[in-house]
Automatic annotation (TrEMBL):
Residues 140-193 are annotated as: Disordered. It comes from the Eukaryota. This is Protein neprosin. Signal peptide: none annotated.
Length: 469
């Protein structure tokens, strides 16, 4: 407004320098005392302030830029300090209060999740990995686990073979820096304010949508899975092909995992889950990441992903749950998979997780569960996506490699060497495997058996296509 007042008339005046000087004073005065306006700046008539274009051009460009800067800043502060209407004033009052309340809640949650670090490692993908004392990890905040110490390694299931071609230490991006966590600590991916701000709800941060069923089309969850049911299951093992499928919405995900399940799908479902997932909402990117999950009440109030709540006890200092997996498979190119084994320790009853060739990640204490304190009644292997139906049509989010099962090796994603743990803590081949794709025109599944891969299946798909509108 100052610049307009001083240059509003382009006729000649001998007071141009005085006018410009007063304008600068006005702008400075208005910047420091925003609710007052200098009369020499805002109340000149065209006859009182007349500056010729020729005279103005004599002023250096740098001097004019200085004037403009002061005036723009002054104008901005003046407009922001002018009294708004009642409704606007109310909104402006409420919004800062609401934002402050939200920020306070986020910081309180971050204090619970992020524990003091003995050492910090920066990953090439942008993650910060904190090396946290094993005894200070989030698990021991759980009322049932307070005062506990990590358990000693359990008895490994009989018949558990190691894959000599797999090295878990080279399977995560953060570890490629050559840095590692010291003895007595575990690596935890640091949760940030940005992570929590992406969440649809602070209260539900790190949790799945409630009432998810294996065979349900509700909540937008779609599956292509192999499963066994009807017996007592004490664990499961499989090698899972890792890809980077396209996920087209922040609130969608694509994952491939093993589920160990007990209870009903309505209110008392117990699940233990592990695999890889892409979740822009949870991680802020589209890297495939190693993850875990658990619930004891059908995803209502218990459980979470990774270490975002108390429960899972981590014992490994070289594997970070929630960290990006590397390398990944490529279409018609190299194939990469990870081996996961979940089993119930026959001595103490806890459910342990192994990643790769014999690396124990940690365990879910038996006390977290109701039905899974005894055994599982169902095991699933396969893929899951969330479909938010953008624009009223099926999502383009991919499952697995993004290609249908019929394309086979090097093109479709797979699970191989499917095994179960029986009552005698022995790994045995899966029998009576059933397959299910609840939207087969969008994502499908095809099983088989051979000498090298044992029980296996290909699965996945592109999502929206001419047969899946």
């Amino acid at each position: 407004m100052c610049l307009i007042g001083s240059l509003g008339d382009v006729s000649v005046t001998s007071r141009r320098r005085t006018t410009i000087r007063n304008c600068i004073k006005c702008c400075l005065f208005d910047h420091s005392r925003r609710k007052q306006q200098h009369s020499r700046c805002f109340h000149h008539s065209p006859h009182q302030v007349q500056v010729s274009f020729k005279s103005v051009t004599m002023i250096s460009f740098s001097f004019l830029r200085l004037i403009l800067l002061f005036c723009l800043v002054s104008s901005s502060f003046s407009s922001s300090s002018s009294p708004p209407s009642n409704s606007t004033a109310a909104n402006q009052t409420l919004r800062p209060q609401e934002e402050l309340r939200k920020l306070k809640l986020i910081r309180q949650e971050l204090q619970k999740i992020n524990k003091p670090a003995v050492k910090t490692i920066q990953s090439s993908d942008g993650d910060t990995i904190d090396c946290v004392s094993t005894h200070h990890q989030p698990a021991f905040d759980h009322p049932l686990l307070q005062g506990h110490k990590p358990m000693d390694p359990p008895e490994i299931p009989k018949g558990n073979s190691k894959d000599d071609n797999e090295s878990y230490e080279d399977s995560q991006l953060w570890s490629l820096s050559g840095e590692s966590c010291p003895e007595g600590t575990i690596p935890i991916r640091r949760t940030t304010e940005q992570d929590m701000l992406r969440a649809s709800s602070i209260r539900r941060f790190g949790r799945k949508i409630r009432s998810v069923r294996r065979d349900s089309t509700s909540n937008g969850h779609e599956h292509a899975v192999g499963y066994v049911i009807g017996k007592q299951y004490y664990g499961a093992k499989a090698s899972i092909n890792v890809w980077s499928p396209r996920v087209t919405s922040q609130y969608e995900f694509s994952l491939s995992q093993i589920w160990v399940i007990a209870g009903s799908f309505t209110h008392d479902l117990n699940t233990i889950e592990a695999g890889w997932q892409i979740s822009p909402e949870l991680y802020g990117d589209t890297y495939p990441r190693f993850f875990t999950y658990w619930t004891s009440d059908a995803y209502r109030t218990t459980g979470c992903y990774n270490l975002l709540c108390s429960g899972f006890v981590q014992t490994n200092r070289r594997i970070a749950i929630g960290a990006a997996i590397s390398p990944r498979s490529s279409y018609k190119g190299g194939q990469f998979d990870i081996s996961l084994l979940i089993w119930k320790d026959p001595k103490h009853g806890h459910w342990w997780l192994q990643f790769g060739s014999g690396a124990l990640v940690g365990y879910w204490p038996a006390s977290l569960f109701t039905h899974l304190r005894q055994h599982g009644s169902m095991v699933q292997f396969g893929g899951e996506i969330v479909n938010t139906r953008p624009g009223g049509s099926h999502t383009l989010t991919q499952m697995g490699s993004g290609h249908f099962s019929g394309e086979g090796f090097g093109k479709a994603s797979y699970f191989r060497n499917l095994q179960m743990v029986d009552w005698d803590n022995t790994l045995i081949p899966v029998s009576n495997l059933k397959i299910l794709a609840d939207h087969p025109n969008c994502y499908d599944i095809r099983g088989g058996t051979n000498r090298v891969w044992g029980n296996y299946f290909y699965y996945g798909g592109p999502g929206k296509n001419p047969r899946c509108p």
